[in-house]
Design brief:
The chain has 283 residues and is α/β, with parallel strands linked by helices. 38% of the residues lie in helices and 22% in strands. It is built from eleven helices and twelve strands. Helix 8 links the parallel strand 10 and strand 11. The chain is globular. The protein binds NADPH dihydro-nicotinamide-adenine-dinucleotide phosphate. The site of NADPH dihydro-nicotinamide-adenine-dinucleotide phosphate (NDP) has 26 residues, from helix 6, helix 8 and helix 10. The site of NADPH dihydro-nicotinamide-adenine-dinucleotide phosphate has 26 residues, from helix 6, helix 8 and helix 10.
Length: 283
């Protein structure tokens, strides 16, 4: 049900390169319709260099912008900007990546809602990670956000496996100074410890580039009870593989919706009722 509009126009953007494919405007307009917030939300293409990103963000907030989602390839640039000039949430500090920018108390605020978006979606699925063993394939920006959220949600062991092992090891090293409540380890994609995992997460972008008949980019002996692919919107060979070996599976559309709802609540103070919303892309 659409409520009465009660707030002045808010203006938000999603900034990235490329950006034309982003579903975020439809998502946030559905949130706005449900909560009665008057919101304009647009895609913002930005040249891929740090100076351009900083100039666009400065101009946006100087002009009265409310908030920005940050996507590929700028999440680490946004982290550097807020680290130098603003305040970072605990999630953004742990991830060393920012996907949500806001203007709070006269300064930039940077958050990372990716990991909590994943955990909230998994809770909706009835997947509790407390005490679980988790394998993450990939060590990019998304993995950094997800690792912190998994540890925060009580996972017992998180193992990160990446094509370039040094990047997985660098994430583990970044967490070394924090008192970790769980075991955190790293390896190459084909050197994963030989044991079944409770949960395996695909956080690689291999499906975007690999040929359909290319070998799977992980050891075919891997097994897990549950498999989650951060990717969404197209068939997943990762999910097909684990489903064929008896796993429960989910793609990442729910994570996208949940991370968006957290950003929206930060900007507007309005929680989104996702159960009542249904499919936001049908609006
Ligand atoms: P990055 O570009 O930061 O990282 C990509 C990762 O994929 C790297 O670890 C890279 O390995 C690995 N990779 C790329 N190609 C291959 C390949 N052919 N074989 C094996 N590994 C490969 O991307 P992000 O971390 O930002 O995003 C990862 C995925 O998660 C994307 O599909 C993205 O769309 C999705 N995502 C979904 C979200 C959601 O809300 N559902 C939110 C955020 C991301 P290497 O280090 O060796 O290059």
């Amino acid at each position: 049900m659409t409520q009465q509009t009660s707030t002045p126009n808010l203006h938000c953007i999603v900034i990235g390169n490329p950006i034309a494919h982003s579903q975020s405007p439809a998502l946030h307009h559905a949130f706005a319709a449900q909560t009665g917030v008057a919101l304009r939300y647009q895609r913002q293409l930005c040249p891929v260099d740090e100076a351009s990103f900083v100039a666009v963000i400065e101009a946006f907030f100087a002009g009265g912008g409310t908030g920005a989602n940050v996507t590929v390839p700028f999440k680490q640039t946004a982290f550097d900007l807020v680290q130098a000039r603003g305040t970072l949430s605990q999630a953004a500090q742990a991830a060393r990546a920012v996907n949500t920018l806001a203007w709070q108390d006269g300064a930039l605020y940077g958050d990372n809602t990716d990991g909590r978006g994943l955990i909230n979606h998994m809770r909706e699925l009835g997947w509790d990670v407390a005490g679980q063993t988790v394998l993450i394939l990939g060590a990019g920006g998304a993995t950094r956000g997800v690792v912190w959220a998994l540890l925060d949600a009580g996972a017992a062991w998180v193992h990160i496996a990446n094509r370039t092992p040094a990047k997985a090891q660098a994430i583990v090293a970044d967490f070394a100074s924090a008192p970790l409540p769980a075991k955190l380890t790293a390896s190459g994609l084909f050197d994963v410890p030989h044991r079944p995992f409770d949960l395996v997460i695909n956080a690689t972008s291999s499906a975007l580039t690999a040929e359909q008949d290319a070998p799977l980019p992980f050891d075919s002996q891997l097994r897990a009870q549950k498999a989650y692919d951060l990717m969404y919107g197209k068939p997943s060979r990762f999910l097909q593989f684990f489903a064929a070996h008896g796993a429960q599976t989910s793609d990442g559309l729910g994570m996208l919706i949940h991370q968006g709802a957290l950003s929206f609540a930060l900007w507007t103070g309005q929680p989104v009722d996702l159960a009542a919303l249904g499919n936001p892309f049908a609006h």
